[in-house]
């Protein structure tokens, strides 16, 4: 589902963020990306949905090369990739329903399909009863659930999450992880960058550890491994 082949990324200021990355992620995998601050995790994630373009190498998502695709085709390729951010990025004047529906409106789905898919997705994330609410009427955890719903409503094969529990309280963070588990169970490939030691060590999944722009660990059921950088959320 995801391949990164000898990927390098050097920024204009000379900082080398990625240094010869090779990764193969299968359909339906759940992968944590961990590492100390400044290790290259954010660049790794951004390259996966073409917010950043590698200096060298290739990234293939669901059979399509992100590095070879023409600029005008990037929006079409991104429809195959759901993205969840730490800061939600919801449209403040639109309701929960409208925020999620927007992702289908831009690809010109019919009103009938939009209503069906939005309500099914809101039910999946536990917000069917808050479809008419505005974002500022929701808790942080509920806003993150809306963000997740918007990112998966068109059923992308890949979901990329950048610190999705970073701004959430402990109980809320565990609830968000339950949603990710359900999404994975439905066959979506999930890649999640996180500083959260307890989540990684409790919900055992594949762990890719990055240091100095290189992959230093890739374990099928790995651990967090960075005490000084961890962000424990509870004694769950």
TrEMBL record:
Family of this protein: Belongs to the ABC transporter superfamily.
Functional note: Part of the ABC transporter FtsEX involved in cellular division.
InterPro entries: AAA+_ATPase, ABC_transporter-like_ATP-bd, ABC_transporter-like_CS, ABC_transpr_LolD-like, Cell_div_FtsE, P-loop_NTPase
Keywords: ATP-binding, Cell cycle, Cell division, Cell membrane, Membrane, Nucleotide-binding
GO MF: ATP binding
Record protein name field: Cell division ATP-binding protein FtsE
Organism field: Pseudalkalibacillus berkeleyi
Pfam family, one: ABC_tran
Annotated localization: Cell membrane
Predominant place of localization: membrane
